[in-house]
Design brief:
168 residues, alpha+beta, SH3 type barrels, 32% strand
Length: 168
């Protein structure tokens, strides 16, 4: 299977692009940073998305918006590779895959070599790393939630922390 190389994306840092041509994983934004197997995209709405390179079908550069100046870059989690990124997102509210039937949100409770464990309401869900096309976290996701869901987030985070300490 052929995937986009990080070398190609390095040349697009600071450029306005569309990730994928359509569908639930399609997103417009600016390439902020590139790593060995994923890259960071700042969407037009200011949300930070992390995309695994192996799932990117296409990158379209908008030549009219070439070299977009980012006035204020939000802080975002970084790591040398996607597995490390997932480790750094532990115990945060995350949204995995932007839309469609594979979209899921919850607290990222654990990260193993092949799977992540998510606390989703009353369920513990395991997802293979390979099936994670994109992920975003924190305030960007919570901003989409109402106040009731914010109180639930705290309960789920506490539960994930307790459950993780029991498994040690």
């Amino acid at each position: 299977m052929s995937e986009l190389s990080s070398d190609l994306l390095y040349g697009l840092i600071g450029e306005s692009v569309r990730v994928n041509r359509g569908g639930p994983e399609s997103q417009k934004g600016t390439v902020v940073s590139v790593y060995s197997d994923y890259f960071v995209l700042l969407s037009e709405s200011g949300t930070v998305f992390y995309y695994q390179l192996e799932h990117i079908k296409s990158i379209t550069r908008n030549v009219k918006e070439s070299g977009v100046e980012i006035v204020s870059l939000p802080t975002f989690v970084e790591s040398d590779d996607f597995h490390g990124l997932l480790q750094n997102l532990k115990y945060r509210w995350v949204k995995i895959n932007r839309g469609g039937p594979e979209k899921i949100e919850g607290i990222l409770q654990d990260v193993s070599c092949e799977f992540v464990t998510l606390i989703v309401k009353e369920e513990v869900v395991q997802i293979a790393h390979y099936h994670i096309k994109s992920i975003n976290y924190g305030l960007q996701v919570q901003a989409e939630e109402d106040e009731d869901n914010q109180s639930n987030n705290q309960q789920y985070r506490a539960r994930a922390t307790r459950q993780s300490s029991r498994n040690r």
